[in-house]
Design a protein that fits this description.
With 124 residues, this protein is mostly beta strands. The protein is built from no helices and 12 strands. Strands 2, 4, 5, 6, 9, 10, 11 and 12 form an 8-stranded mixed sheet that branches. It has a 4-stranded antiparallel sheet with strand order 1-3-8-7, with no helix packed on it. Strand 4 and strand 5 form a beta hairpin.
């Protein structure tokens, strides 16, 4: 089992920046990758970014490419999402999942463990 706890949500103005964190505990060595997904009100959960624990290989959704940066601190078992140039469309609950798939990285089904999520709102 892997436990995941997100933090860093809140309220930010459009154009601003925010960094989310996700602390992992438990059998973290069993997961190959971690990621960020988000779910806005009335919408399905969507992929944001993913990174592998070893090597740090990343993939981003087109909607956040160039604005968001995913990173990890292996020593602290912590995942980060630095978000810049935020706009109201980024408002959502952000969750960090962990998974073992080496192939499936951008869909919900590719992950085995999920945190509860952290909410942040971008005001216009």
């Amino acid at each position: 089992q892997v436990q995941l706890v997100e933090s860093g949500g809140g309220l930010v103005q459009a154009g601003g920046s925010l960094r989310l964190s996700c602390a992992a505990s438990g059998r973290t060595s069993s997961s190959y990758r971690m990621g960020w997904f988000r779910q806005a009100p009335g919408k399905e959960r969507e992929f944001v970014a993913t990174i592998t624990w070893v090597g740090g290989s990343t993939i981003y959704a087109d909607s956040v490419k160039g604005r968001f940066t995913i990173s990890r601190d292996n020593a602290k078992n912590t995942l980060y999402l630095q978000m810049n140039s935020l706009n109201p469309e980024d408002t959502a609950v952000y969750c960090c999942p962990a998974g073992n798939s080496r192939v499936v990285a951008t869909v919900v089904g590719g992950y085995d463990y999920w945190g509860q999520g952290t909410q942040f709102t971008v005001s216009s």
